[in-house]
Amino acid sequence: MGWGQVDVIDDDLGRSGSGTVRPGFERLLGLLCDGHVGAVLSIEASRLARNGRDWHTLLEFCSVVGALLIDAEGIYDPAQMNDRLLLGMKGTISEMELASFRQRAQEAIKQKAKRGELFMRVPIGYVRSCDDRIEKDPDVRVRSAIERVFRKFAELGSARRLYFWLCEQCIDMPAVGSASSSERVAWKTPRYHSLLSLLQNPMYAGVYAYGRSKSKLRIEQGRKRVVRTHHRKPEDWSVMIADNHEGYIDWDLYCHNQELMAHNTNGRGSAVRGSVRSGGALLSGLLRCGHCGAKLIVQYPGPTSIRYQCPTRILSREHSSCVMFGGLGADQMVAEQVLRCLEPLGLHAALKAIENLQGAEDERLAQKRLALQRAGYEVSRAQRQYDAVDPSNRLVAGTLEKRWNDAMAVQSRLEEEIEVLMQQHPCAPSEETKQSLLSLANDLPRLWDHPASSHDIRKRILRTVLKEIVVYSEGDSVRFIVHWQGGDHTELSLKKTPVGRHRHITSTETIELITSLARQQPDERIAATINRLGHRTAHGKTWTAARVCSIRQGHGVAAYREGERQTRGELTIDEVAAVLKVAPTTVLRLVRRKELAAVQACHNAPWAIRQDDLDDYLAARARQSPSACNSDQMALDIQ
Length: 639
Description:
This protein is an alpha+beta fold and 639 residues long. It has 23 helices and 21 strands. The strands form 8 sheets. A 4-stranded mixed sheet has the order 12-16-17-18. 18% of the residues are buried.
């Protein structure tokens, strides 16, 4: 048309004008400001800017630099009042028309959602039927994988643990196949966010939901940005149709799973109980301060000690902790209360455990068997394709032969894995095992305290029956208000441990024994003596010289010094035997017959004989016995 330089701008094609950054339009405005543009041509001028603000900005720039606006209907000069008015009206009408279209589309979407017929994407495990409804996937392997996820989550109680378990067991999960693949479902290594989305989707509970997220608008860098708020409460959903289709779980179990995952979110702080963590504190996450409402924290001052404490002191050094107490006694008290409530269900639980051992199949074995069935189908399919082609056509037959070989390799690998799993599969429980389980059902405390019972299992049992425990500090005791899951409440009381006392205290008998032996033996000999007697330290360990020394110093007992016994005039059995010129066993006979006075602190301790008692014995024997013929020989009347 006679223009010397034409620049075609099509960068914004396929881009929405509602707040999205449009590089083409931004470049157009830049060229207008530089004065390099004489006219702007468009099929429809009012749709050039796509929204009212950009449209009026374009009109203002064109009027300043004297550029024309040209569309299929005419030529406009924004500097002229009439053309400016006409362009403004066309822009307003176009914007209203666009808003009307958008509103109609949104209302149509809402009406279809209210009927339960709007499916943006069918979740894995479901397929769309011919009447615009959804039903369970006919593939048994897909259905069993989905059911396994919900069943194992109920067992583990954590999406993260479920993810790690699936990865450790090498169990693949179904996913939507790629567009380039002919298969509708692809089996892949599980991903954490995919599992989390599956557990949070109400479609698996047979509920059709629309409006689970809410959109919010923000202005960032002069542009509109849409931000979605997820995890709205079910009562706030726009559409919720219960029993819309067949679900993998019921609605009550879905709500329980959502509550459990919400409490596992440790980032929410004291608002939730938190997930089950490592450590020996059984009440971790269940205790809440009755004075300030904060969730009590757990501290481990020693390898075998536990302390629950209100975090007030940690957050503010100016205030003391509202409540602080030892955790071992509290754990035992609450556990005993829970076991008393669970005792009537012990027999039922044992019978259920026997049924599970008899009828349960290993999860990996079930998964591999389904995969083997699928592999067998792939082998048959590849064989049929190979048989249908002319073998002389190597361009096609070679590819089909490779597919057949690959399918048979996968089948062989799965058969080997199943054979290994069958060898590792546990046998059915014997009658002895059944009787052991039934006996444990009648003695839940023994099962609870069994070394094989992990802290993780105990914590999950407590969280299943307990909702929360509110703690109050009242003088020298702590009051517990136990809130059960059913809505009942129980009040318990625990005496605080006095300051300076703890549960690891050496017995008084052992301390007295060390005190008496310290006057006769060094620490090494004392440790050997009390170890032979079966005495142990407060922590259940054997005695050493260092531990004996620690007890002595703690109770102000002096250490044994060489020559101390001689200073007190005390002799040992060997020394007395040397004086009497007899064997030590002979002296022991005299002591047992009480003819010679001697003192022994305990069994296996050395005998102590005073010099005065030995002199008295010698004088008595000299008066009673006849004089010996040999002056160097003494006669003893020993029977």
